[in-house]
Amino acid sequence: MILPTRTGRDAHTPRPLTVKRGVNPHASGSAHLCLGRTEILATVSVEDKPAPHMRGKKEGWLTAEYAMLPRATTDRQARERNLQNGRRHEIQRLLGRALRASIDLKHFRNQTLYVDCDVLVADGGTRVASVLAGYAALHDFADRLIQTGRLSEWPLRHAVGAVSVGLVGEELRVDLDYAEDKVARADLNVVATDAGLVLEAQGGAEDGPIAPEEYIRLLMTGVEAVGGLLRDLHRQV
Known about the structure:
Layout: E1 17-21, E2 29-35, E3 38-47, E4 61-68, H1 86-102, E5 112-121, H2 126-147, E6 160-168, E7 171-174, H3 178-183, E8 186-193, E9 198-205, H4 212-236
Parallel strand pairs: 4-5
Antiparallel strand pairs: 1-2, 2-3, 3-5, 6-7, 6-8, 8-9
Helix pairs in contact: 1-2
């Protein structure tokens, strides 16, 4: 098998990240994020109504939704109308867990925050790019609340990001594009904070088992890479 090569970055360097916040004038917060050729639009909406399971609680709730536009990929995909789609449901749960960890929901009692992440262009890593885009949109949302005086305390408690890491042949690579993801013999999606705390790791071996040391190396490399991506993101938002 001929393994894909990288141009312009080494094995431990993520693809270029660019982010612009405040791109949707109708949303309470928004961000357009590019990670290489993968593009995500994330928006934040607020509903003055508690989630059913949060009625009477002292905190609000955050939920996330994920969708891929029909021409996000090389071939047109049917528009996702089935909310029970397994992959979509799994990604939405990941996004919700990650983004709830980033925000102190005590500021939003009896409210529900919706973070919508739409994939405009897919070239691998759409779920990790959606975590980054969702966090950038929440950052925009939080900044608006402070600037308008609706909150006096910064509501974000953790900077949260994600990255993919994988073994392509014998080489550990950070932030796999689609061509690399297809041939990786093991891969993880690592969700972490800028302080190096792990929130989640999804994935595993694709071509037979790997040694525990390799798994740990994937995880630790991912955590370090998330820190770098978040520093880059914060310089832009």
